[in-house]
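lol so apparently i was supposed to do this last week
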Amino acid sequence: MSQKDSQTQSPPAPTATPAKVEPSKQQQGNLYNIVQLQLEKAAKSLNLSKDIALILSQPKNELIINFPVRMDDGSFKLFKGYRVQHNNILGPYKGGIRYHEDVTLDELKGLAAAMTWKSALHDIPFGGGKGGIKFNPRLHSKSELERITRRYTHALGSNIGPEFDIPAPDVGTTAQMMVWIMDTYMNVVGFGEKNAMRRVVTGKTIISGGSYGRESATGAGTVHCLTEWAKDRRFNLNGATVMVQGFGNVGSWTAKILAKMGVTLVATGDYKGYIFNPEGLNPHKLSEHVLATGSVEGYKHSKPITREEFFQVEADIFVPAALELEIGEKEAKALKCKVIAEGANGPTYPEAEAILTDRGIDVLPDILVNSGGVMVSYFEWLQNKRSERWDLEEVERRLEAGMKRTYSIVRDYAEERKLDFRTASYSIALDRLEKAYAERGIFP
Ligand code: NAD
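anyway here it is w/ nicotinamide-adenine-dinucleotide bound
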């Protein structure tokens, strides 16, 4: 990538309550239980100590806050916010903030645990956390979003901090919102050392201390994994096709970077609907359309399709980049791709993964694939700590090296032990966590 990221995207324009695209799998499953199953599977294959498995089965802290915010019309609304801190044995809690009407404590517990595994897998000195507010950000004006974000940060108070718990963007949150979090924190909690407080949050705008390459990092990391997969499988990406579920930060950047490598986007979809064009959808023009309208729906060079039809599209690569638990048994049987690169966190049910494996479809797991975001968040945090500014090329070089190094470690580990990539990734992460506990002991 050579272009500079534009990180000043404003929050989505308020719209009427969207009609949800068919019932999402999310309502039927519990991400926390699924992460537990995956933990148990890897723990067994690794022969992980029962004590460590027990400690890691629950987050250290679960914070729930209810806070009032004044709306533009003068009325007040009460919001429910969360912050789950899963584990910090390898470094400060780290993980995104989600604004979505379906946010639940169990979802955040699952996502926070996944952050612990992700940092440990990549040997990034962070732990795992996740937070969110249960509301639909699309129904609020920019000034309401600012007040909601600042009041949430105020309510969290010293429960976050630059060496303690470091939030970042996730579904429904933007670089601008991270700047509001930083500004509120440094004016309320850390006013004595304002500059040192910049790294209380990552994914900020460039001008306010963000890193070049952060906005595109998760998409770029996803593409690095696909490049390595293609090399191993002797598959030519140039001329291949991709379908992407979710066209927000992760989905749109993955599609844009893949396009440079000659991969054609043939289908995509978001919270409003799905679209298809076998001749190819231009991801840059589609991004402009999404910025203007809030959705891929209505993009003129496309045909609308249903969610069911989307999962039947012929494409070589599938990148889920929306919400978790979208690929159930039905979807696993319908998919026609060769590889799934999990841009989203937890998109695949274990039963579905078994079907995909039987069908010879490779699954590149979330904690390996979508970690470009936390990797560049770590670079941003380091730059803030050292008062440095790395140029885009430097960030991209480090990201590529980090992603490819971890990919090859996972591949070799999986091959040696005849494991699937997910179990191999979990095992490498759990092994590091276990070693840290063994050295430090469990207090008292
Ligand atoms: P985003 O808010 O920018 O985009 C989310 C996209 O999913 C949007 O296009 C939205 O319309 C779509 N969507 C929402 N509900 C949907 C539904 N029911 N069906 C289909 N599409 C739906 O969020 P993002 O940051 O791109 O995150 C996407 C996924 O990637 C999440 O699972 C997130 O946890 C994960 N992730 C994000 C990052 C990051 O750096 N942003 C890093 C790692 C993992």
